Every structure is written in structure tokens, then in C-alpha cells.
Amino acid sequence: MNGSSKIACTLSDGELNERVNFISQEVLSGISATVELEDGIELQFPGDESWLHKLTALIAAERKCCTFLHFEMSLLPNHGPILLRLRGESEAKEFLTLFQQVK
Question: Measured between alpha carbons, how far is 62 from 83 in angstroms, rounded to an integer?
């Protein structure tokens, strides 16, 4: 990870509210497990294709505004769960607490 990345979101207040609503309504509902990592968090989602598309769209959107995050997605065999790891420098971990609010 690049140590020069600034921990800041580039979205406007309105865009940020929209993104938080999307994450709260569309993403958090699919989390079946969370694992705290030393440098971030791992989220487990259902392994079906609709979640693959939803998570890929989320990553694409987040890469534009949260350039300090490192994304890793693993698809487990036999259509098992999708694991999404969000990592960053120590300051990024606080930012990721939104994802720990599993519904």
C-alpha cells in the first residue's frame, strides 16, 4: 500500500449521503460475517452472481472517491461466499466502521 495516500473522501456532502444510504440499504444487508484485520476488515457475502455484480459496482465507485483504500475480492469454490477485504493505513480502519454495522 502506498503510504502517501490521504485519508479523505472526495464526494460532496450530497453524494456522500447518497453513497452511505446505498451502502446501508443495499450492501450491509448482505454481510453474513465480518472479520477484523490488522489493517482493515473482511466482509463475507452470498456467492450468487447478483452479489458479485453489486460488489464490483461498489468497488468501482469507491475507488473513485476513496483512493486510500485497497480492495481485495475472493470468490470461494463451488459458488461459496464472496469475501471482500477493505484495507488501508491505520487511519482508514476508523473509516471502515460503517461496514461493521451488520444488520
Answer: 17
- pLDDT tens readout for residues 2-42: 444 566 677 777 877 777 777 777 888 899 999 989 989 99
Euclidean distance between CA atoms 38 and 32, whole angstroms = 20
What three-state secondary structure class fits 35?
strand
